[in-house]
Amino acid sequence: MTTAGQKVSPSIDLAGAEAPLLDLATLAERVKAIETTPDRATLHALATREPTSFHQATIYNGLVRSNTPAWRKYGLLAASIGIVFLQCFVATGLAHGVTMSTCSEQADCSRGTFCDEGICDWCEEDYRGCCATNSTGTCKRGEGDGVISGKGLEGMCTTCTTSKGFENFHDVVIDRVDSMLLQDWFALLLASIVVAFAVFAEIRDCMLCDIALREISKRRDVPRGWRFAIGGLNAARYFVLVPNIICSVMILVLNDGGRVRDICLNTVAVLFLLEVDNLAFLHGLSERTRMEAEENAGIHEHVTEHDLQSMDAVKLACVLAIPSAVFIGVCGVYAKNLGEGETDNLLLMFTPVPSVVVVFVQRVKANGRWGAFSGLGWGTVGYFAYFIWDGLFYNMMFLLAHGESKEYVR
């Protein structure tokens, strides 16, 4: 038996020469290094592996896998469309419904709003005269705007008049922002950065879907319907889902206040909308379909150095643009004279700006100087598309749904 200080007997190598003697301490160190040092090839494979999303699985089953049944191919495409539509619809409903939520009594509405025929409406400056002691039982806000009368007028005056007098929604929002302390603003900064990272993950998935279509088109013709479907889904995620996620964060601060607790909890609640497609992939697919997609749908080997640079540029754009938009939107309540004194005008104007910046950066990275023109053009189209969707949603949910029962609609 040898001891720690003894030498291991020499061995003969293939050339016939004796190998150098090794003591047991050196041999033990080498064995330990082999056991504890990670395999570089394995680490590289793990580092370059891109998590598969539901939409990437849809592209794989629809365009790559040759023997996919038609029902699964188009079923997954319909599911992808349904998931994005639900995300956009719920995110828009959250952005609108934070302040103008449904209600059955005045207690259901937050400070600065009142229950008007099932909808929490704003206490606005134009209503101040309606609650004067000499006002009649009917209040008309403006020519062609309708009236509030009877029980609705009584509820409005009771709710909007506090110990400070008549408080319109803008006054209440200013009080909430003024009450934010230093730690609240830092919490908002942290929350906006977290939102920026989550939004970038959504945008990166869109970019990976585009890369997948690009690589598939090199080997075969991609049907025009699939191009339009995937392109439309990505556009909806860019200019409907992402802006309404950002808008919800700002609206929640104005409506619920900017305390650290509220900011943190509300941010977590909003970001669950971005996890729907990942949960659908992990738990909505059959195990065989999911495992096959995980093994074969990954496209990391097709991601070029230029693609990586584009992703880094988009990430930087998100981290800079989204917190800036959030702070401008929250502080924009002080710009009362902008847009006839509407509290959320500046907020709404800057909500889609991060998406415009991202599209601009992507086009510039893809096409250089000439990409700036197409990026600006597509960004402008997306900017107005956001407001078109927003207006359609507002009219459908709040005007048409309650048009017959409401005596007055804002």
Biggest sheet layout: 2 strands, antiparallel
Widest sheet: strand order?
A: 1-2
What's the β-strand tally? 6
Q: Tell me the distance between the termini.
A: 94 Å
Shape: globular
What percent of residues adopt helix (DSSP H or I)? 55-70%
Calculate the mean pLDDT score and round it. 81
Runs in which pLDDT lies below 50 for 5 or more consecutive residues are 43-48, 404-410
Number of helices: 15
Strand-residue fraction?
A: under 5%
Order of helices and strands: HHHHEEEEHEEHHHHHHHHHH
Report the C-alpha radius of gyration, rounded.
Answer: 29 Å
Structural class: mainly alpha
Counting copies of identical and different chains, the oligomeric state is: single chain
Report on this structure.
The chain is mainly α and 410 residues long. It has a domain of 225 residues. It contains 15 helices and six strands. The chain has a two-stranded antiparallel ribbon. Strands 3-4 form a two-stranded antiparallel ribbon. Helix 3 packs parallel to helix 7, helix 7 runs parallel beside helix 9 and helix 8 packs across helix 15. The chain is globular and about 85 Å long. The termini are far apart. The C terminus is likely disordered.
Secondary structure elements and pairings:
Elements: H1 24-36, H2 40-48, H3 54-64, H4 70-97, E1 113-116, E2 119-122, E3 138-140, E4 147-149, H5 151-160, E5 161-162, E6 165-166, H6 169-178, H7 182-219, H8 224-256, H9 260-271, H10 276-284, H11 287-296, H12 305-331, H13 345-350, H14 353-367, H15 371-400
Antiparallel strand pairs: 1-2, 3-4, 5-6
Helix pairs in contact: 3-4, 3-7, 3-11, 4-8, 6-8, 7-8, 7-9, 7-12, 8-9, 8-12, 8-14, 8-15, 12-14, 14-15
